[in-house]
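STRUCTURE:
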């Protein structure tokens, strides 16, 4: 396919020089396009082997080269010297490694347009004489990690000079236009050499002499006098400087990391630099206090200061503060209009905090163990942080009484505040609160708050609770075992979980029901103090659909039946004092006509009541009878539950007999799930076709160890679990839709009985006969013949 020259030019502009050479060998058109001078203005040969003649030819062919990189190229000095006459337009030259002699630097004058020279990891000169860089057009010179005896730089237009990590004993500068000078890690340079070099540059604005351990305060003072425009200074890791009496009025950025001589007395000189914007004082081990009033300070870093106790900062534009690992910091006072985030984590000795920060939004004071209750005034309305939205006080173990009154606060975390006994929040916009681990909380008030949900976690000592939350829809109080007084005013509340609130009284429940009429789910499990009066108040909850009264001492359920006709789910698990008479209203009077789920697990309900419930409560979808000791057999008949005022054997003479189809339609029950796990005394389960359980899809009889006979005719049954029914001997199934049959550890079940049972289960896919010793696990071919749909047979003895 032919490509136009313009399209080829565009494509080749994305290729490197190696790829251009390969593409040029394809055809004449590609060769011509690849040789265009636009692609060869920048020659990058770093770490490449190239012979002298090829390099000279390339430079001769492309004499408009502006950028040349020979870093890591063998004999790069010779290459440049041989081709220097063709590099008249060179602007940027990069060299690295090898030896560069005096002749190389002298020939650079042949490149009048050269503005940038970078040399790294090379040996300069012969080792016995100065290396002189003399070029009138050079603007930037970087000699990095090189080795030389002495270096002399005479460049009238030079603005940037970096000698970082270069080993030299002396440096001479004649650069009247120099603005940036970098001596970082020049360990061999003496204090006097650095002083002479820097003071020779009157226009200097940036100086880096970090890790030059010989630098003294006298040198700094001389530089300050000679370089009045110095705005950036890095003197980190200079142990001999204290910065006292150093006057740098134009300083903007100051870095004094790991300077052992910096003390509180140094702050006076720093404060003289009124234009300073960024300050770093990390690892200054003798620094005990910082008190600065700098109108332009924006950033400050104070990390790992072992003796640091006091911090006072005043700056209207201060926007970033980093304080970390200051183990003895006690007092902090900050005034700023720009600060939005403050993090003071793990300041174990911090006990006093003063903030005047009009735009502060986020504060994190985690693990400040000595913070007192007074800190709450700082973050309340009128305390100096009117815009505060997020406050973290995790593990502040000295907080005992927390009172916050803030109109702006949205998020609050008090996790791990184990000494807190009282909490009072008046934060109308509060959306999230974390109280994990506040296990000594005794009184709590949330009035008002904007919370949509609240989980108090485990508060075993909480006795009094007040909540006023107009937007709250979910409230969890489980674990508040001694809560006795609860005033809850949440008009939009839909779910309340008060599990294990053993001392919650009737009056609290009544008040809550009146104030929260939209509750749909109410969990009162293990609320042992709730009685008839409390349950009677549920008539206010017209939308109540789930009520959990498990593990209570209730005897009379009439208040529930009278107050909650719309109830759909009723849980009465482990209600040991309920009798058969307690449930009569369900199956004799038609109470709770919308009930679809009933849990009577581990209750003392008798055999008769269970049979009546299953027979008459035809709307039930899910029934749990787990662990019912009074259930001896489950035999479901076809008799319909007759009204109370009409005996079953009475029939009007003028009424025609009903057909079987009509009886089936009228008596069709909605039951789908029946759980009878762990019923120790049940011996027989029979559900004939006439019982009309047409929707029953799941039966669980696991762990019913005395169950001997199961006879099921269920047209819609999908799952049957008879695991651990160790007495099961008779199994009859007519379940055409059964797909999963669990018979784990049915030790008495014979193989012939199993074959007969599954013969009418035409879509059975999963069969578990693990630990069934009377079933031959070495050959399942007979089972697959009887039931061809089987896909998976689980057994411990498969060969």
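SEQUENCE:
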């Amino acid at each position: 396919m032919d490509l136009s020259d313009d399209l080829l030019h565009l494509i080749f502009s994305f290729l490197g020089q190696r790829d251009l050479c390969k593409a040029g060998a394809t055809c004449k058109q590609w060769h011509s396009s690849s040789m265009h001078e636009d692609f060869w203005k920048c020659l990058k040969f770093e770490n490449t082997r190239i012979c002298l003649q090829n390099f000279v030819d390339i430079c001769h062919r492309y004499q408009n080269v502006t950028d040349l990189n020979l870093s890591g190229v063998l004999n790069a000095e010779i290459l440049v010297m041989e081709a220097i006459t063709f590099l008249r337009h060179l602007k940027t030259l990069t060299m690295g490694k090898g030896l560069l002699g005096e002749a190389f630097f002298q020939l650079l004058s042949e490149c009048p347009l050269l503005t940038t020279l970078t040399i790294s990891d090379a040996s300069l000169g012969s080792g016995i004489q100065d290396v002189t860089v003399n070029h009138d057009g050079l603007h930037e010179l970087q000699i990095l990690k090189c080795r030389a005896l002495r270096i002399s730089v005479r460049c009238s237009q030079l603005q940037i000079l970096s000698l970082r990590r270069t080993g030299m004993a002396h440096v001479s500068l004649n650069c009247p236009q120099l603005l940036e000078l970098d001596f970082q890690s020049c360990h061999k340079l003496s204090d006097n050499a650095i002083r002479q070099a820097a003071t020779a540059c009157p226009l200097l604005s940036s100086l880096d002499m970090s890790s030059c351990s010989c630098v003294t305060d006298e040198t700094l003072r001389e530089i300050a006098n000679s370089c009045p425009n110095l705005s950036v200074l890095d003197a980190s890791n200079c142990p001999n400087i204290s910065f006292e009496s150093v006057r740098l009025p134009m300083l903007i950025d100051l870095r004094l990391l790991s300077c052992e001589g910096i003390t509180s007395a140094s702050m006076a000189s720093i404060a003289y630099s009124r234009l300073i914007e960024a300050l770093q004082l990390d690892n200054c081990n003798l620094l005990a206090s910082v008190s600065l009033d700098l109108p332009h300070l924006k950033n400050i870093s104070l990390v790992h200061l072992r003796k640091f106790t006091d911090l006072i900062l005043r700056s209207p534009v201060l926007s970033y503060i980093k304080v970390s690992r200051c183990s003895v910091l006690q007092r902090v006072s900050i005034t700023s209009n720009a600060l939005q985030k403050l993090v003071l984590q793990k300041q174990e000795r911090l006990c006093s905090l003063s903030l005047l920060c009009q735009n502060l939004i986020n504060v994190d004071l985690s693990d400040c163990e000595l913070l007192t209750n007074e800190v709450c005034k700082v973050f309340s309305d009128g305390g100096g942080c009117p815009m505060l939205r997020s406050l973290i006080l995790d593990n502040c173990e000295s907080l005992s009484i927390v009172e916050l009154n803030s109109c702006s606060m949205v998020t609050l975390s008090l996790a791990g505040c184990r000494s807190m006994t009282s909490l009072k929040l008046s934060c109308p916009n509060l959306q999230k609160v974390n109280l994990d681990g506040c296990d000594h909380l005794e009184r709590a008030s949330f009035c008002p708050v904007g919370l949509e949900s609240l989980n108090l976690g485990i508060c075993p000592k909480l006795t009094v609770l007040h909540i006023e939350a107009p937007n709250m829809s979910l409230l969890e109080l489980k674990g508040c075992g001694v809560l006795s007084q609860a005033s809850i005013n949440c008009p939009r509340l839909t779910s309340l979980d008060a599990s294990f609130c053993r001392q919650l009284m009737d009056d609290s429940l009544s008040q809550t029901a009146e104030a929260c009429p939209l509750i749909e789910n109410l969990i009162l499990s293990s609320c042992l103090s709730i009685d008839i009066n409390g349950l009677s108040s549920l008539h206010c909850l017209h939308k109540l659909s789930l009520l959990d009264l498990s593990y209570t001492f209730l005897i009379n359920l009439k208040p529930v039946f009278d107050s909650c006709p719309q109830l759909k789910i009723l849980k009465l698990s482990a209600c040991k004092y309920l009798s058969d008479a307690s449930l009569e209203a369900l199956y004799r009077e038609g109470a709770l006509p919308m009930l679809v789920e009933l849990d009577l697990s581990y209750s003392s309900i008798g055999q008769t009541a269970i049979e009546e419930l299953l027979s008459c409560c035809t709307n039930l979808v899910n029934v749990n009878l787990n662990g019912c000791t009074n259930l001896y057999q489950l035999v479901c008949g076809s008799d319909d539950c007759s009204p109370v005022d009409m005996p079953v054997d009475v029939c009007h003479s003028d009424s025609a007999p009903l057909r079987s189809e009509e009886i089936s339609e009228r008596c069709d029950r909605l039951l789908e799930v029946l759980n009878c796990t762990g019923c120790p005394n049940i011996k027989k389960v029979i559900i004939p076709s006439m019982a009309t359980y047409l929707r029953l899809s799941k039966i669980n009889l696991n762990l019913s160890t005395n169950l001997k006979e199961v006879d099921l005719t269920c047209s819609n049954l999908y799952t049957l679990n008879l695991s651990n029914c160790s007495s099961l001997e008779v199994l009859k199934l007519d379940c055409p839709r059964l797909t999963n049959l669990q018979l784990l550890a049915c030790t008495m079940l014979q193989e012939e009985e199993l074959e007969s049972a599954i013969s009418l289960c035409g879509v059975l896919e999963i069969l578990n006969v693990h630990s069934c010793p009377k079933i031959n696990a070495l050959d399942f071919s007979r089972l697959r013949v009887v039931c061809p749909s089987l896909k998976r047979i689980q057994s411990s003895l498969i060969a």
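REMARK: DSSP finds 18 helices and 50 strands in the chain.
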